[in-house]
Amino acid sequence: MIIFDEGEKIIKIVRKHYFVIMPTVLLTFFLAMAPFLLFSFLGSDFLSIEPEIKDVVFDFLAKWKVFGYSIWFLLLWVTFFMKWTNYYLDMWIITNKHIIDVDQKSFFHREITSFRYEQIQDITIETNGLVQTFLKFGTLHIQTAGQGNNIIIKDAHYPEEAKTLILQLQEQSKSKHNL
Amino acid sequence: MSLALASTSIIHISVMTAINFVFLLVVIFSAVASAIMLFHWKKYGMGGKTLAFTEIVYFVVVVLLIFAAFLSLN
């Protein structure tokens, strides 16, 4: 669990754009449709299978189609949500005191890095290509002082908004500490 | 109908037994994976409507699919 300082409030949580998970969504959809395609393929005259074998296969499939598809879809469903969890838990928490980078690499493997606003030296946004420009997502680079551990927020949703917010919070933090 | 498990055809199991075994394995896998995901959602998800909605959709579909598979066994 992420532990916050006393009086620390979450201002915004920045997550990756949903476009990042789209290949997984499409692959899951295709795999969910695959049994129907396979069934049509087996039923077509494209394959020269002996009629007896074809009958046995079709009898088996007809008997177990509900069971087979339920099990197949259940496996796909669970696997998709395992991927989605890794996508969803990869986030950046902007609080009134820190930026917390939660890098969810896999289940039971995550790196949590936090930076104070005073450590931030520069923020740059990189928007690469047509898709990122139109869907408004990109990479946010936050250069920090002291440590060589800069934050790179890949595929962040609305990076401009996040940058403006971070700069505002940095100004507030500076004036609070008379820097 | 029976399935030969070994090349020597010593062990034979019925299709029904094999299907029951597959069902059991998939249910165990789903239960373990769901428990791990629920743990992560509760501990690191930071709450919110999206996650609450996702949890409901996920578990409703999982239960429905297991129920459908179980009913089709009989």
User: What count of domains describes the coordinates of chain A?
Assistant: 2
Number of helices of chain B: 2
Oligomerization category of the chains in this entry: heterodimer
Unreliable segments of chain A (pLDDT under 50, ≥5 consecutive)?
none
H/E element sequence of chain A = EHHEEEEHEEH
Radius of gyration of chain A: 25 Å
Task: Tell me what the CATH architecture of the largest domain in chain A is.
Answer: Roll
Provide a descriptive summary of the structure in words.
The complex is a heterodimer of chains A (179) and B (74). With 179 residues, chain A is an alpha+beta fold. Chain A has four helices and seven strands. Chain A has a four-stranded antiparallel sheet with strand order 1-2-3-4. Chain A has a three-stranded antiparallel sheet with strand order 5-6-7. Chain A is elongated, with a radius of gyration of 25 Å. The model of chain A has no long low-confidence stretch (mean pLDDT 86). Chain B has one domain (20-73). Chain B is built from two helices and two strands, in the order ββαα. Chain B has a two-stranded antiparallel ribbon. In chain B, α1 (15-44) packs antiparallel against α2. Chain B is elongated and about 55 Å long. Chain B starts with a strand and ends with a helix. The interface between A and B is medium-sized, with 26 and 30 residues.
